[in-house]
Amino acid sequence: MKPTRLSLLLSGGLLLFGATAGAQTKQETGGKPMPADWIDQDTGHKVVRLTPTDGGNGSFYFHNNPFLQGKAGEGDKMVYYHTDERGKQLRLVNLKTRQVEPLSRYFAKVSGEIVAPKGRDVFYQAQDTVYATNVDTKKTRRIYVFPKDFPGNITSLNANETTIAGALGGEEAREILRKYPAKSDFFNRIYDAKVEHILFTIDTKTGKRTDIYKENTWLGHVQFSPTDPDLLMYCHEGPWHKVDRIWHINIKTKQNKLVHKRTVEGEIAGHEFFSPDGKTVWFDLQKPRSVTFYLAGADVKTGKEKLYQMDRNEWSIHFNVSPDQKLFAGDGGDAGQVAKAPDGMWIYLFRPRATSLSRSD
After folding, report:
1. How far apart are CA 125 and CA 129, in angstroms?
2. Which residues are within 8 A (CB) of 329 and not within 5 positions of it... i.e. 6 or more apart?
3. Cα dihedral 54, 60, 61, 62 sign
4. Any residues with CB less than 8 A from the CB of 137 and at least 6 apart, and which?
5. CA distance 355 to 339
6. pTM of the predicted model as reported, rounded to 2 decimal places
7. pLDDT tens across 72-91, in order?
8. I need a labelling partner for 91 at 20 to 30 A (CA). Which of 51, 82, 200, 287 fits?
């Protein structure tokens, strides 16, 4: 039995995959409107749609935590994007009752989704303004307004919830993006331009912005450590086989550190994310590109790496790890992706072994 061949988004709803179920009709997943829950005929696993289909629903980016612990008896909650003819907003779904409620008002453009589990706020950006909305009271406060000459974007919140971080490319990079909106058109152009980029922070209480690092190269994928409030991870964007991508910076001392150094021609590393305890940075590693595939983890302090090799079909565009770090998940990839997998369009569950990942069905 193979892992579940399912998309994270189906019929406008966000999905939850359960253990193998008992008596219920099995049916093929996808390609048509689906019921609220069903048994996937390929795997026997139960699938539950968490959200209604009254518009488009979108999950957070793979390393952004959308979950909040519920208060006594309420059930845990998940934040997600909802879009309909009125615009885009953030919504809450109760994972126990599946009840949905709006969190933000409708905005023309919402991005930078960040959940603060301690303060129970959700930080986000609507055009040039950064807001925080409390999950329990629904009260919204304005954190910061970007000036016209600094149209930055927020992406991460530090461990003690005092500091937001983001990045801004120079005007030349922004002009390239406006002129060539397709990734296939702007990606190499922005990399080749060597335009100054800036990493910045914003104080969540005072709204003070501080520019912490500048470099004449494309910077992005900014993530704070989940445990160290001063440690910020960022990457050198561009063609992965041309860049040593993954870096750390201490926002107080400004000390920079390369996380992974490429060692062979054509090697690529990326889609990096922190382990829940902040001790490891995990990333997709190919040595070289499209040939040998690993999920790699670099120790944040020592730099020592752990490699889990996998089959071409099991390679995933994005990976993630469970809170207890005993399980990994991957979202697979089609034949047009870098692995060119002939049978890779599955959501995978992996158990780490000594040097490989064991697929769980």
Report:
1. 6
2. 319, 320, 321, 322, 347, 348, 349, 350
3. negative
4. none
5. 20
6. 0.92
7. 888 999 999 999 999 899 99
8. 200
Residue 344: HSE in the Cβ half-sphere, 13 Å Cα cutoff: 22
As a whole number of angstroms, the distance between CA 42 and CA 197 comes to: 47
pLDDT tens string 217-244: 999 999 999 999 999 999 999 999 999 9
What pLDDT is recorded for position 15? 67
Task: Give the closest residue to 60 by CA, choosing from 91, 30, 19, 84.
Answer: 91
In the block, residue with structure tokens 């983001």: 166
Name the pLDDT band for 21 (thresholds 50, 70, 90). low
- Write b or e for each residue in 92-131: b if 16 or more Cβ atoms lie within 10 A of its Cβ, otherwise e: bbbbeeeebeebbeebeebebbbbbeebbbbbbbbeeebb
Instruction: Residue 235: count other Cβ atoms within 10 Å of its Cβ.
Output: 24
Strand partners, 307: 296
